[in-house]
Write a structure and sequence with these properties.
By secondary structure, the protein is mostly helical. It has helices spanning 15-25, 93-111, 115-118, 123-139, 151-155, 166-183, 190-197, and strands at 28-33, 37-42, 80-81, 89-90. Helix 2 (93-111) packs across helix 4 (123-139), helix 4 (123-139) crosses helix 6 and helix 6 (166-183) packs across helix 7 (190-197). The longest helix is centred in the middle third of the chain and has 19 residues, at 93-111. The chain starts with 14 loop residues before the first helix and ends with a helix. It binds zinc ion (2 copies). Residues 70-107 form the MYND-type domain.
Length: 200
């Protein structure tokens, strides 16, 4: 495991406070500056070349709108579609095997979709589906959560919903509706999904 990643017991996870503690140990503080919004301030001197913070995205998907890309390594060319869901592409069995733990649940919900709806699964819609799938997998402890890799941090993001025009809000509502239709989980609702679209 990378020394940069601090794995904490799930019971000790409490989103921002936990993150603040981890950042403090690295000489960083979360702050709010007028006119700039939420930001990181350095509490110590860093030298050129120092890695200040390394964080993987909570979820990511390749932008497949121009050409298919592998879901594991984002490579293009010579790809095969996941035969079960017919949505996700892989360059080979090694990427498919590596991704299976997180794709398995997503695959089962995508596979249930009717063909015309499946065509509407854009990268943005998939990103949101993957976000909820990862939240579920972490809460079911199928994949581990860490202090800098947990859903609470997504929840802490600022939504900027007030800055959006009506056209954008309608689009997000439609996308949220599709995500809700794909997942059909009782613990999520369209409003919450739409708010998340305003965050990512
Ligand atoms: Zn690949
Ligand atoms: Zn699949």
């Amino acid at each position: 495991m990378s020394p940069n990643l601090l794995v904490l017991e799930p019971s000790s996870l409490s989103s921002m406070e936990e993150l603040r503690k981890v950042l403090q140990e690295r000489g960083l503080a979360v702050s709010n500056l007028p006119g700039k919004g939420r930001c990181l301030l350095a509490n110590k001197d860093f030298s050129p070349g120092d890695a200040i913070l390394r964080q993987e995205p909570y979820v990511c998907v390749p932008n497949n709108s121009a050409e298919p890309r592998c879901d594991g390594c984002f490579a293009s060319g010579n790809l095969k579609k996941c035969s079960a869901c017919q949505v996700v592409w892989y360059c080979g069995s090694s990427c498919q095997t590596l991704e299976w733990k997180s794709h398995r649940l997503e695959c089962s919900v995508l596979a249930k979709l009717e063909n015309d709806k499946r065509k509407c699964v854009t990268p943005s819609v998939r990103l949101m589906v993957k976000l909820y799938v990862k939240r579920k997998l972490q809460s079911d402890k199928i994949i581990p959560a860490t202090s800098i890799d947990n859903y609470n941090l997504v929840e802490e993001l600022v939504s900027h919903i007030k800055d959006l025009d009506e056209k954008q809000l309608v689009l997000y509502a439609q996308m949220a509706n599709l995500v809700n239709l794909i997942l059909q989980w009782s613990d999520i609702n369209i409003k919450e999904i739409a708010e998340n679209f305003c965050k990512v």
